[in-house]
Specification:
The complex is a heterodimer of chains A (588) and B (326). Chain A has helices spanning 3-37, 119-128, 177-189, 223-228, 237-241, 255-258, 305-314, 325-328, 363-372, 375-383, 411-421, 442-454, 467-476, 494-500, 507-512, 518-529, 533-550, and strands at residues 100-104, 133-135, 142-144, 147-152, 158-163, 201-208, 211-216, 268-274, 278-283, 296-301, 319-320, 336-341, 346-351, 387-388, 426-433, 436-437, 440-441, 458-465, 481-486, 553-559, 561-566, 569-570, 586-587. By secondary structure, chain A is of the alpha+beta class. Chain A has 2 domains: 100-301 and 562-587, Periplasmic binding protein-like II (D-Maltodextrin-Binding Protein, domain 2, 3-Layer(aba) Sandwich), CATH 3.40.190.10; 346-559, Dipeptide-binding Protein, Domain 3 (Dipeptide-binding Protein, domain 3), CATH 3.10.105. With 326 residues, chain B is mainly α. The longest helix of chain B has 38 residues, at 183-220. The model of chain B has no long low-confidence stretch (mean pLDDT 87). Classes of the chains: A alpha+beta (588), B mainly alpha (326).
């Protein structure tokens, strides 16, 4: 190379050097700027969980959170109570000036209170549209909310509610019996998913603005529990009608309006909702009860449990609602609190003898399947042991489950039953929806079931399908062996019998293509007509045993819930009726 | 173009109806599928109780009026949903495209000029990783490193959770915040863009840099470049003023394709980063068999592809004087 070339090369090298130096300096400044703008957080004391595409958040159930036990103190006589808007609190909670941020994978189908039907909807409805009856922190006792007191007749066909005269909607107008009548008639008339809760309501009379008298078409001892369900929240009739709301599905035009506006009496109002992004609540400054403790509540869409954990630990979120067991076990930061609590949600195996290919599922074979399952193994594999076995379709803690023995694996008995059945080795179609709910991955669970049943000569052909495709199959030919989940809509055990029992109009009577069992039908009718809570519990206990004997629905995992929040958040809980009652939360 | 879009809508309509899946699951929930009252009401409300042909005619009638129907899952007009989500996706993909194309061109030039040196090998390796690493994995990795581990950059979302979005003008948070003079929100929105845009851009860098490198090397072997060098022009002038313009012609073509490609690639990135764009909307709609939303997204993406092709042709004509539009 000549001297000119050397000169060019040298100049070029100097330019490259200056360029690299400038680039490094710019990068340093950029990183410094970013660091100064990011929050200062305390690093997690344990090793951070490596991110993994497999660690996905649970998808919330489309139906309500679970509720426990009997409707104590609500049969026959009147129940007097406090007039506080929030239940179960004795000292005023501290009011924060900082918005509460909740991470959640939302499953909202609608924000119209007469159409909404999902887990996230329950949280929203409870905060914005109050019900007449609330649920105490013990998840069992019904307490006054918009209604001060209530009574029912002895045959459970008439219910009278006396409204709190202090209760007002967010626009300041009083909550009246006309609003209650409109709300429940609209729920029934729009025929949405929750309309079944008022299907037995025959008439609603409003003798005066503070009295509501409901007459049922048949006895319904579950009605008070259903009134507590968030789906029976009360709408401001005047505000809704002004937007085209009616009680008839063919004329109602308010659906779109409810997606960005609210007309309730709760401590919060709807500020905004953007599907797939966020649901924002604003404090109701005119709330008639204890003042809301946050100026704003922001529920942000976060699909992954790992991301929820990251945001919680970073302080970008105050609550992470769907932390799974494997993510929770590594969360040891002193800035976060993780509590494991029992839930009323569960995953179950469904056996359909009437389905195509299900003819080999005789009662003996079904009993063998029940005995062959390794229940503890299923809990260990799916939720790392954070769960419980459950004997009957009525979940642990509900009326009727006292004294029921948890299911246990008995392989010897299962093999003997298979030998008695004389069917030899059999192969069954096991198509199931590809779901991950409450931390239970269905693919993992079904593989475990497949392994367990292989030991007694039953081969399952696993076929995972998207839920909408699975629904087509189960609604047509049926599926001999499948899996699904359940979370309750209200506190009464009747919903389980109505859904799982071999009774008229039961979903699983239809899907399993099994005949109705008269004994179960009679027991259910008796329970609906029973005024006494103890008698009802006894009837549901008989029903629980009858459903176990049906050998059609086998609960496999009753997973715990992990309540994860920042350590300064008070009142974190699992509400049996509402998932999470925002009115009970505070900061500091 | 309108006929093409109608054709796309028709095909998607037929395919979605032929899919052996039940859209009622997302409307009423699987627990009400055997409730005849609820099912009948839902079918009537959404027109699913009519014959497929009647449903098609009604849909096309509305489509010709610019009405894409109402989403089963959001209960909002699909046009409203898309208008909410499109700016988010556009903001992300435009930033990723500009960033990725710019860096890709720079890297390609560097690799070409430093051919067969360590710099060339590093640049090509970097490009290879970008092209081959699944972007959902890159997203999770970036979040873990830059957000969770070192707290250098913010986490998912377009803004901090407690931040107020700027008043809507374009829907681009960066532009809208600037137009409102809200520099705090501008900074927040830019920082939130860095990670997801980087994930998307990495793939673009890979494709563009390799293309630019190859094109430049072809140009370096041409006579006019040899003459320019022989005339003593600086290498930077030879490359930037002469060779690059010709080498960029294929890149212009590929950038047009990349833009539409990025919109589809944004799907997983939007899920990982909780970015409320069209991609995540498309996934949710598909899973829930939300017919109106599926068709709406498909029509939109089809329109994007067609428009992108048209713009590419126009830009190409400006870049290359030998091309004339007929």
């Amino acid at each position: 190379m000549n001297h000119i070339g050397q000169h060019h090369t040298l100049r070029h090298k100097r330019r490259v050097g200056r360029g690299l130096t400038a680039g490094a300096l710019a990068a340093s400044l950029f990183i410094a700027a970013c660091s100064s703008s990011s929050k200062s957080v305390t690093p997690a004391t344990s090793g951070a969980t490596t991110t993994s595409a497999a660690a996905t958040a649970t998808t919330a159930a489309p139906t309500g959170g679970s509720t426990a036990g009997t409707t104590a103190g609500t049969t026959g006589g009147t129940t007097a109570g406090t007039t506080a808007g929030t239940t179960g609190t004795t000292t005023p909670a501290k009011v924060s000036d900082k918005a509460l941020v909740i991470d959640r994978s939302m499953d909202i189908n609608s924000l119209d209170p007469s159409v909404a039907y999902c887990d996230t909807c329950q949280i929203f409805l409870t905060a914005v549209y109050e019900t007449l009856i609330g649920l105490d922190s013990d998840n069992k006792t019904l307490v006054p909310r918009l209604a001060l007191k209530w009574e029912s007749n002895t045959d459970q066909t008439e219910f009278t509610f006396h409204l709190n005269p202090k209760a007002t909607f967010a626009d300041g107008s009083p909550v009246t019996s006309a609003d209650v009548k409109f709300s429940w008639e609209r729920l029934k008339g729009l025929k949405g998913a929750a309309s079944y809760l008022v299907a037995t309501v025959k008439t609603i009379d409003t003798p005066d603005p503070e009295t509501v008298k409901v007459t049922m078409s048949q006895p319904n001892s579950a009605f008070l529990a259903q009134v507590n369900a968030s789906y029976l929240g009360i709408i401001n009739m005047k505000a809704a009608v002004a937007q085209g709301a009616t009680t008839d599905a063919t004329t109602d035009k308010a659906g779109t309006w409810f997606q960005s506006n609210s007309a309730g009496s709760g401590p919060y109002t709807l500020e905004s909702y953007q599907s797939g992004d966020s649901l924002k609540f604003k404090a109701n400054d005119k709330y008639w009860g204890s003042p809301p403790t946050f100026p704003e509540v922001i529920m942000q869409q976060t699909d992954s449990a790992v991301t929820q954990r990251q945001q919680l630990e970073s302080g970008d979120a105050d609550i992470a609602m769907q932390i799974s067991a494997d993510v929770a076990k590594d969360m040891t930061s002193s800035d976060t609190v993780v509590k494991k609590v029992p839930s009323f949600n569960y995953v179950y195996l469904a056996l359909s003898p009437g389905a195509k290919g299900g003819d080999k599922l005789t009662p003996t074979v079904r009993e063998a399947i029940r005995d062959a399952l390794d229940y503890q193994g299923l809990i260990d594999v799916t939720v790392s042991g954070a769960g419980l076995p459950q004997p009957s379709p009525i979940p642990n803690g509900f009326a009727g489950t006292e004294g029921l023995d948890p299911p246990k694996q008995d392989l010897a008995k299962a093999k003997q039953l298979m030998a008695d059945a004389g069917v030899g080795n059999i192969t069954l179609d096991a198509t199931f929806p590809t779901l991950n709910v409450y931390g239970v991955d269905f693919s993992t669970a079904m593989q475990k079931v497949q392994t367990d049943l292989k030991a007694i000569g039953i081969t399952l052909t696993l076929t995972p399908l998207e839920l909408s495709v699975w629904a087509t199959k189960i609604g047509s030919d049926g599926i001999p062996v499948t899996m699904l989940y359940f979370a309750p809509d209200h506190t009464d055990s009747s919903q389980y019998v109505q859904y799982f029992g071999l009774v008229p109009d039961s979903q699983w009577t239809t899907w399993t293509k099994q005949p109705v069992v008269k004994n179960e039908t009679d027991l259910l009718n008796q329970a609906f007509a029973a005024q006494d809570a103890t008698k009802r519990a006894d009837l549901y206990n008989q029903l629980a045993k009858a459903m176990i004997a049906d050998q059609v629905i086998i609960p496999v995992v009753n997973p715990n819930l992990f309540l994860a929040s920042r350590s300064d958040i008070k009142g974190m809980h699992y509400s049996a009726c509402c998932n999470l009652d925002l009115a009970k939360l505070s900061r500091g | 173009m309108p006929l093409l879009l109608l054709g796309i809508a028709t095909i998607v309509f037929i395919v979605s109806r032929l899919t052996p899946a039940d859209p009622l699951v997302s409307i009423v929930g699987e627990r009400n599928l055997t409730n005849p009252v609820v099912v009948a009401a839902a079918k009537h409300q959404w027109g699913l109780d009519q014959s497929v042909f009647v449903q098609y005619l009604k849909y096309m009638q509305h489509l010709l009026q610019g009405d894409l129907g109402t989403s089963f899952s959001t209960r909002q007009p699909v046009v409203h949903d898309l208008s909410q989500r499109l700016p988010a996706t556009m903001e992300l993909t435009i930033v990723a495209l500009v960033f990725g194309t710019g860096l890709g061109i720079a890297l390609g030039i560097l690799a070409a000029r430093k051919r067969n040196t360590i710099i060339d090998h590093v640049a090509r390796f970097f490009a290879l990783i970008g092209s081959s690493m699944p972007n959902f994995w890159a997203g999770l990795l970036f979040l873990y490193i830059f957000y969770n581990r070192f707290h250098w950059l913010p986490g998912p979302g377009r803004l901090a959770a407690r931040a107020k979005p700027p008043g809507h003008i374009t829907g681009f948070f960066t532009i809208d915040s600037l137009l409102h003079g809200d520099f705090t929100t501008f900074k927040d929105s830019v920082l939130h863009l860095v990670l997801p845009a980087s994930v998307l851009a990495w793939g673009v860098i890979g494709i563009v840099s390799r293309l630019v490198r190859a094109s430049l090397l072809d140009e370096f072997s041409t006579e006019y470049v040899k003459v320019a060098r022989a005339m003593g022009l600086r290498e930077r002038t030879v490359v930037n003023a002469h060779a690059l313009r010709n080498a960029l012609l294929p890149t212009i073509t590929i950038v047009g394709f990349l833009f539409a490609y990025l919109i589809t690639q944004a799907v997983l990135v939007e899920r990982i980063f909780s970015w409320p764009g069209v991609g995540s909307y498309a996934v949710t709609s598909s899973v829930k068999l939300d017919y109106p939303a599926i068709i709406g997204v498909t029509v939109l993406v089809g329109f994007a592809f067609l428009l992108t092709n048209l713009i590419t042709d126009i830009v190409y004509a400006f870049a290359d004087p030998r091309i004339r539009l007929s």
